[in-house]
Amino acid sequence: MGCLDEGRFNVEVENVVSIGCACKKSCVEEEANTASIEDAVKVLLLGLGEDVNREGLRKTPLRVAKALREGTRGYRQKVKDIVQGALFPEAGLDNRVGLAGGAGGLVIVRDLDLFSYCESCLLPFQVKCHVGYVPSGQRVVGLSKLSRVTDVFAKRLQEPQRLADEVCSALHQGIKPAGVAIILQCSHIHFRDIESVFLDSNHQGWTKILVSSGSGVFENKSADIWADFFSLLKFRGIDKEKIHFRGSSDQCWCSSQSSLSAKASSKIEVVNPAMVTAVASILKSLGEDPLRKELAGTPSRFVKWLMNFQNSNLDMRLNGFLCNGMNSSNTNGKVNLNDKKLCSELNLPFWSQCEHHLLPFHGVVHIGYLISEGFNPIGKSLLQSVVHFYGFKLQVQERLTRQIAETITPLLGGDVIVVVEASHTCMISRGIEKFGSNTATIATLGRFSTDTSARTMFLQSIPSDTSSAGGQ
Amino acid sequence: MGCLDEGRFNVEVENVVSIGCACKKSCVEEEANTASIEDAVKVLLLGLGEDVNREGLRKTPLRVAKALREGTRGYRQKVKDIVQGALFPEAGLDNRVGLAGGAGGLVIVRDLDLFSYCESCLLPFQVKCHVGYVPSGQRVVGLSKLSRVTDVFAKRLQEPQRLADEVCSALHQGIKPAGVAIILQCSHIHFRDIESVFLDSNHQGWTKILVSSGSGVFENKSADIWADFFSLLKFRGIDKEKIHFRGSSDQCWCSSQSSLSAKASSKIEVVNPAMVTAVASILKSLGEDPLRKELAGTPSRFVKWLMNFQNSNLDMRLNGFLCNGMNSSNTNGKVNLNDKKLCSELNLPFWSQCEHHLLPFHGVVHIGYLISEGFNPIGKSLLQSVVHFYGFKLQVQERLTRQIAETITPLLGGDVIVVVEASHTCMISRGIEKFGSNTATIATLGRFSTDTSARTMFLQSIPSDTSSAGGQ
């Protein structure tokens, strides 16, 4: 499977700044790299038509630089250091009797939550990682080291299969076991472009892929030992048949690539060359080679993604629509509250970009409003357009919620409640790594801001199973 | 609710070593504290009858010291530094129109996974934290800061209600919002003593508690705003009625306390005074006051817990039992494999203590074996005793698995499979924090080490819903 390529392992292990020595030199380098990323991020913000001095953006370049350095710290970590201090002698059984302990007894660590950065588009992706190995030579490795080593390779620009292979190879070289098995369940934001989001109301938020890698006794995919591994993993909902094998399609899972190829023939997009150069310089500052084959198109793909959130990108396109919407509105001032009924549109999807970290957040918007008997509810597509209108910007969730509420309230008669539920990539990447967490914000107008029972009636109508926009 | 006590907040915020300055001084202090904890841990290991120079324990004092320092880093962190760089101006609505954005629009971050250390017994406990606040003054806080601040207080010796109050108070002082609401779902290992584990076969592995704290508009428990908060949290399975209110029982949730009081009258336990002094010195090295009321009994409670895992603690008690078990065994050598049937005992609970970090791991053992037609299966209680026999030691999971298999195989005819599934506290505390992760190990003897279909038949009989011993 190629994952036992010693040459590559040694490169991974040796050609990195060693931790603890040359501290001063690496501190200076660290600062220079951070400053260079900051400069590049300013170029990106200017390209988005933003004012880099406005309060919410002033420290964004520094925040982005820190987050990217932290999120790619794996380039500066040594697997050898991690594993070698944690190999413990552990008796096995005579192999004529059986397999256990330090000789032949399968060890599995399940459900390690990680995130990595997609080398194709620079967005973070989530990984649920399952690691197994079969000890040999009467020694075992400290369990937490299996987690630490996977993290070293996750914290680089990656592609799922390569991540699995690199972790497998590194553990095999580090532990020298009878074999290593890796299964990764990866979730990547699925987003092609604004048009596809508008056209496809059942748009899936995530692309998922299942990859594996094996060495030694796991090298052969049909070896019996894999059956043991899967028997223990079936509890985690993993279907062996769904594992992506290298070469079986070899299409990139990242939607930024399919977007490019699909559109290449129909339309040539103009990408701001200064922004592309800025992203290439970021790659270099992270310790990557921007000319590496897999990274060649990454800067322009990232810029294309970012430009979806250009200031006022959608304004001209939607302004007319909104005006029409308002004119055709059925609202007609005050009505007796008892005559009103609750209308709601739940689970309107949105995409946005956190202005503090230039990282996506996405989720769903729930809108409730009271209308008088005899009047028709407003069309869902109009509400969805308003949601996208404010989503496709550099945003914070609190503002998005307020802006949606402010915009729709004159259309809907003034009694409006808006709930936004979102997963923030900035809460899983960077130092935070709160994988399951998600955020809810509320705006209440008119009667909803004073009448608890009206609020509660609406809030309890929000289904729990769609409340999270999480990827796993 | 007392959580707005400014005096205490200022103590929390000011009386800590500031980060980034006085670096050299704090480095020297750090090293002295770590060395002092190492010395104390050596005293504990000697008190357990262990050889501190054996390979698996040689670096345990250093590992424990590092883990404890890391796990209590909150004593050395400043809330002010975290929050004040991340307050952003954000428009609200005219409050005659409604509540949203930077004025009145409720913001909730759900499902933050944390861990903390129980001040009563020094074991880590898990926390699922939900934070809400109502912005005022046209400003909001960066969402990730809600997570960072909760973490500052979680990384101290705590008790659930105090943790909730301190986080609430710190956020209120830091953000100056209209109000802050905190809900914590806490899970603590429930373990009284070896006897209670032996006597109660339905022994629950976890004590759970739900606590809340509120300031400002949340200060009144029956305020309408709590209804909104709970409406959004109901999706997380939280039942408002089950929240523990201060004073309603005021019994400590930690089972180490109920153990002490229940036994005080019947039996006076002798606790090694050198070990108790060692634990008190650890508390001091972590920056705590060992004389603080809540900590007064902690050293002796921790030593009592630890002594359950004393080397050869159970040996004399169980050796006779095991010999009897062996003599009464029904196995009688080789039988035609086709005549054999699969017997299994699933979900035998165990408790153990990781010898690398002196932290508990516990979970379940599944045992399968083949017996000839006409013979009766071995009694469950014997197998459970063997499991406890090897669990109540300083252990690693791989060795536990092997030892159980080695011991029972002569009783069970030689065709034996043992699967151990466990949650390791050392995987959630320390720097790892892989909350959902858990570990499986296997030993196979006789036919199970060569016959894949026999293995698979057994492995697939393990129910998935009890496979994890996780606390949440």
TrEMBL record, chains A, B:
It catalyses: GTP + H2O = 7,8-dihydroneopterin 3'-triphosphate + formate + H(+). Residues 37-189, 277-462 form the GTP cyclohydrolase I domain. InterPro entries: GTP-CH-I_C/QueF, GTP-CH-I_N, GTP_CycHdrlase_I, GTP_CycHdrlase_I_dom. One of its GO terms (cellular component) is cytoplasm. The keyword Zinc applies. Its EC number is 3.5.4.16. It is an enzyme of class 3 (hydrolase). Keywords: GTP-binding, Hydrolase, Metal-binding, Nucleotide-binding, Tetrahydrobiopterin biosynthesis, Zinc. GO terms for biological process: folic acid biosynthetic process; tetrahydrobiopterin biosynthetic process; tetrahydrofolate biosynthetic process. One of its GO terms (molecular function) is GTP cyclohydrolase I activity. GTP cyclohydrolase 1 is the first enzyme in the biosynthetic pathway leading to folic acid. This is GTP cyclohydrolase 1. It comes from Senna tora.
